[in-house]
Amino acid sequence: MSVDHTKNIIEVKDVSFSYGNTTVLKNITLTIHQGDYLGIIGPNGSGKSTLLKLMVGLLKPTQGEIKLFGQNLNNFKDWHKLGYVSQKAVGFDQLFPATVQEVVEMGRYGSKGLFKNLNKKDYEIVEKSLNQVEMWNYRDRLIGDLSGGQQQRVFIARALAAEPEVIFLDEPTVGVDAKTQEQFYTLLKKLNRELNLTLVMISHDLEVMTKETTELACVNQSLIYHDNPANCIKGNYIEKLYGDDKLINITSHKH
Amino acid sequence: MGSLFHYDFIIRALEAGLLIGAIAPLIGIFLVLRRYSLIADTLSHVSLAGVAIGLLMKVNQLITAIAASTISSVVIDKLRTSKKIYGETALSIFLSGSLALAIILIGLAHGFNVDIFSYLFGSIVTVKNTDLYIISILSIIIILLLSIFFKELIYISFDEESAQVSGIKVKTLNTFFILLAAAMIAISIPIIGILLISALLVLPTVTALQYKKSFKTTLIIGEIVSLFSVMTGLIISFYLNISPGGTIVLLMLTIFCLTLFYKNFFVKQN
Fold first, then answer.
1. pLDDT surpasses 60 at B241
2. How confident is the model over A12-27, as pLDDT tens digits?
3. Which of A9, B54, B60, B155 could bond B163 through an S-S bridge, CB–CB 3.0 to 4.6 Å?
């Protein structure tokens, strides 16, 4: 797939969202292009998770419009173009009786339609997805028996099994040790650069986000910044977003 | 000891048992994995109110039980998802409310002369010919509908949000599933009895979960436990003249305890 960096994948137009009287997001406008690796950062309760849920249609905006692949979200049909790795994917029921293979097969269900079972081609895609995250050898293991980092890879494989064009990740590295996180980010980079997948990721890890992504969006109720990470640091936007203490962390943590 | 198959009623009970025993784990596995076990209890009590309405109006009680259970299931589902009241509060309101209604209606119907015991704990002589037809038809409908969206239900149970993002109509399928569970619960009344239905739905799956296998294998183990317990329980209850519901559930409980014992003492030591 050739990448067209001018092609709009997601258009968020003047979107606001509130729970009752509490405004969570206000007048957000943002466009994500094909091949982008967008990081969304912001303090706790800034509404960044809400923004992601709005983009994938789990929540409906109170005001404004969201378009995916040029179609309004309300009439959107091509759900197989989306991959989603939720926070819950890491906090799922560890006792759930499903093997790695069975979990990744779920990635094929959405595009399959009711009453239809998976066929040979589906199983080939499942195998390919598991190989891409190097988890094929674990296919018969129970998902709950794997380490946090391995589980993440399986959830990425499940997202890949739908053969998506964009993958959304909601804080995927929560509760995983630093070394595993690094491998995970290497995998994401590979998916973005080699498979030309558009990635949209929320993370608390500012240092990684400024280093790994191609675009950064700083959210705190409204969109404070959206451009490349380098200008974000130069413009002291992170300071504006969090206050001084976090900035010191980033500049002193250089590897 | 008389031969089992000389009596029509026991053949009807065994046929009904075969169907109910086969469907129970198919519904039960999702109830357990989605922490919906209490719904089974609530809907079975609602079914009792349905039975009472049937007694009062002198129509087939299985039909009124199915109606009460399915209609309430949709209302409960709406109340839970509206988030206006807590999910478990909706369940306890329905549970006690329908029990209150049932007691009053049964009193009105026959001044408590009705053999309510067989509705509460099941009986092998209560499965009438009409009941067997209703049970058979509904069983086929439940199995057909389940097979249409079984894989989607697995995904929803595992990760509801991702299932929705993948394009699965989560809300619609949830409502369908609750309806099927309600129908399943109502048709289990004649054999298992209202008070023991939730055990029928929960115990085979909980037992199977102890083996820590794939979804497919867990379901198969649940089926074996369920079918074995229901059929053996019916035969034992015939020969010993005891409640079939109680016998079936005690059998299931024994298998569950043996599994726990085996898993915790033998497997760990090796």
1. yes
2. 999 999 988 888 999 9
3. B155
- A79, pLDDT greater than 60: yes
Question: In this structure, are residues B185 and B40 in contact, taking their beta carbons and an 8 Å threshold?
Answer: yes
* A83–chain B nearest CA distance, Å: 7
Residue B14's pLDDT is 93
Asked if the C-beta of A172 comes within 8 angstroms of chain B's C-beta atoms, the answer is no
Tokens coding B29: 């596995």
Strands A198-202 and A37-41: parallel
Instruction: Determine contact: A98 vs chain B, CB below 8 A.
Output: yes
CA dihedral A80, A82, A85, A89 (to 10 degrees): -30
Q: Tell whether B223 lies on the interface with A, counting CB pairs under 8 A.
A: no
Output the CA angle A84-A87-A90, nearest 5 degrees: 100
Residues 104-133 of B with CB under 8 A from A: none
What CATH number should be reported for the domain whose range is A8-252? 3.40.50.300
For chain B, the domain total comes to: 1
* Chain B residues close to A114, C-beta within 8 Å: 148-149, 152
Q: Which of B32, B147, B151 to mutate to test the interface with A (most CBs of A within 10 A)?
A: B151
Which of A88-97, B112-121, B192-201, B217-226 is least confident?
A: B112-121
Listed by start position, the domains of chain A span 8-252
CATH at residue B79: 1.10.3470.10
Tokens 């608390």 locate to A204
Domain that holds residue B93: 4-269
